[in-house]
C-alpha cells in the first residue's frame, strides 16, 4: 500500500455481504488503490466473491463458504479460518488465510495464489487448473483430485489418495503421504522443480527458511490418459 | 413296401431367435468379449419407453370452443427467472436449445445453433467446454452451464451470459460424469479445458466444491453475488426422483428447474448407463409439476422439460402437463443435418447407417457436427444450418399453436392436463391423465 491508498471500513454486523460485494464490484481497474477492512465476517458466505480490481480486502475473522470465489486481481487477507471452497475458481490475485481452510480450498482455480497458514481439509486443490496453492500445515484426503495444472505445495503431510486421477499439476509435499491416488506417482526432484518450489516459498514469505530438498514431488504417471482394458480396476 | 422310397423327412421347426438373446444383444456380447471395454456412444435412450406419443388432446367440442387458426392470437412467449433474478429472460417461443458442449460439437455447429435460436427469439446453452465466441456472438440469449468439471469457467464469461445453469445431472446419465475421447481433444479444445491434447478426458460426476442441497443453496448464493443478482439461475437434473429433486432445487434457490428425461442425449456415455439409468420424460413431468404445486411455486419457479422432444405436439403435451418450456438437443442436431441420408455411403463405411449413427464421441461425423476434424467441420455451413434450425423451430411452434387453438387456448401456457387423455394405462399412470374413453386415472379414485 502506498501513500495514496484509501482505507475503507465495512462492518458486516451492520451491513450485508450484498452491500459489501456490490461496492467492491463497482471498483474497476484503474480506480485508486484501496484497502478495505471488513469487520465481523462471522462465517458469512461469499464474502469478496467475484472481485475484479487490484484492491486489498482484509477480513478480520472467520469466513464461510466461497470467500474470494472467482477472484481476479484482488488481494484478500483472511485473519481467521475459511469455510468450504475458499478462492474457488480464482483467476488471478492472492488469497491468504491465516487460519485453517475447510474442504475444496482453491477448487478449479485457474490462476493466482492461495496461501493457507494452517491446515486444509479434504480435496484441497480439487480440479485445479493453474493456481499455486501453498499450505503451511497439512492437507486432507483426495487433495489435488483430477488436478489439471498449477502447483500444490504442502509443508506438512497429505492424507489418503493424494493426486487421484491427476493430470499435469505438480505436487510438492514435505511430510508424509498416507497414500497416492490412482495414476499419481512420486517423481524425480530436479533443479527446475527446486527452483519452482523456491518461488512458492517466496509467495508464502518463507524463502530462506525452508530447504526445497526436504520436499518430494508427485505427479501423473499418465497411464490413465487413454482407456485400456488392463487398467479397468483403476477406473 | 417299396424299399426304394425314402420316408418323408420329419418336419423341422423354423429357426427361432431368442427374444432375450436377440441379435443386438449377441452383437454386444461379442463386442465386449473382443474389446474388454464397455460400449460408449452418443444420443439418448433408444429403447421404446412410454412417451408423449401415448397422449392425445381432446380438442374443442360442445362444451368448449376453439380459436380460429391464423386469426385469433395464440401466444407462445415465456419469461424465465422471475423468482430472484433482476434480469429475467424473455423468449418468444417456449422451445430452447439444450446444453451441448463445444468439444463435443464443432465451432460451426455451435454457431448454427446460435443463429437458428436467435432467429426465433429463443436461447442456446453452452456445455462442458466453456463459452466460445461462435456461440456468444451468434446467440442473443445464452445460458452458461456450470458443470462439475468447470472447464473454461471464468467470471468474465459468467457475466457475459444471460443465465447460469447449474448442472446436477442429465437424463442420459443421472449420476454420471462426462467423457470426451482423445480424437476430439484438438489443440483448441485442449486449451479451453486446460488438458493435454489427445487424451481420453473424463469429467467428474460431482461438483468439486459442494455436495447436496444445503451446499447448493450456498453455491447459488455465491453465483448470485458474483453476478450481482442479475442472472436467472437454473438447476438441471436428470430425471430420476423428479419430485424430490425439484423440491430441493426450489429450496436451494433456483429460478428455473430443468428436468431431462432418459431420452435426452449425451455426447458420449456408456450404453449401459444410457439405457438403464433414469426414467422417461413422460414419467418425470407430472412429478416435477406436483412438487412445484405442493410448494406453491408452480409458474413462480419455471420448469423446462427435455428429453425426446421432437415436434409441436410434444411441446404442447409437455406444456399441458405443466412445464413452462421445453429444450431440444438431439432434434436440433438433426435439424442442422445430423444423420442425414445424403451421407449414407459414409455412414455405411463407419459400419452404421443414416438414422442410426451415434458414435458422436469418435469425432468422425460425416455431417461435420459432432467433430473437431477441420475437413469434416467444413461440411456444415452455419448460416444454412442455422436457417434449417429456425425453420424447424417455427414449425414446432406453429404445431403447438395449432393444438392449443383447437383446445380453445389463447396462449400455449393455458393448455392443461384436462385437455389430455392417454392411450395406454402406463401413460395414464405416469401423466396422471385419464385413459382415453374413460375417466380412470390409475392411482386416483375413479371408475371406468
TrEMBL record, chain A:
Database matches in SUPFAM superfamilies: Alpha subunit of glutamate synthase, C-terminal domain (SSF69336)
Coiled-coil regions listed: none
A GO MF term: oxidoreductase activity
Domain of life: Bacteria
Signal peptide: none
Protein name: Protein glxC
From TrEMBL, chain B:
UniProt cross-references to Pfam families, sorted A to Z: Glu_synthase (PF01645)
Gene this protein is translated from: glxD
Location of region: Disordered: 118-138
Keywords: Oxidoreductase
Cross-referenced CDD domains: GltS_FMN
Sample GO molecular function, one term: glutamate synthase activity
Organism: Hansschlegelia plantiphila
Single GO biological process annotation from the record: glutamate biosynthetic process
Protein's name in the database: Glutamate synthase large subunit-like protein
Glutamate synthase domain segment(s): 84-337, 361-409
SUPFAM superfamilies reported for this sequence: FMN-linked oxidoreductases
Family in the record: Belongs to the glutamate synthase family.
